[in-house]
Amino acid sequence: MITGGSAHHFDVAHWGMDLEYSGPTKIEGRGEFPTNKIWNVHGKYNVHLTYPGDIQMRVSDELSNGIKLIGDEGWIFVCRDTGNSPTAKLSEETTQNWLDASNPKLLDPNGVTVQFPSSLSHHKNWLECVKSRGTPLSPAPMAHCSNTACILSWIAMKTARPLTWDHAAQRFVNDEAANAMLSRPERPGHGAFQLAKSHS
What we know:
By secondary structure, the protein is an alpha+beta fold. The protein contains five helices and eight strands, in the order H-E-E-E-E-E-E-H-H-E-E-H-H. Helix 1 crosses helix 3 (140-159).
C-alpha cells in the first residue's frame, strides 16, 4: 500500500538523494484498484517520480522491497529489515542481503567520504532529543515530505495522468481536480470545541 509503509522507503530514498525537505516535481503512475466496495486499496502499481536535478525514481510492486540507489560508481540496495516481505519479488542482487552493492567497496566504512549521524533506534533517538531539546534524525518536516510523496503517488495512480507538483505551494500545477484529492471532508460534530461544549 503506497500510502502505508512506503513512507519508510521514501524517507531513505529522499535521504539518499539529499532531498529530505523537498519532493518530486513530476509524478505519473498507474495502479489497479478493486471495483468492489469492501476493499479500496490498490493491487499492482507502478509510479515514476522526477525530483529536482532530474533525478528519476520508480516505485513498483515489480521491484524488490527496499531502495536501490544508482550512482556514477554503481548501486547500493538497502531494505529497512533483515529480510524482504513475503509478497516482494526478489532480484538476483537482493535474494539474501538486506544491504548489498554492485561493488563491495561501496559498503566499506573506510571508503565513506561523508559522515552522517547515526542511531540504532528511532525511539531512543527521539527520547534523547526530548531530553536534550535537539533535533531527531527524522524530524516532523522530513516525515511530512516522505508522506507527501506517498500521497502524490496515490493521486497519480487514481488520476492516471502526468501531474506537476509545486513543493513550495504544496499544490499541483494547473490541476484543480488533483488538488481536490489532497484532502477529504471531515466528519461534522467531532471538534474539540463541540465536545467541550457538550460537556459544559
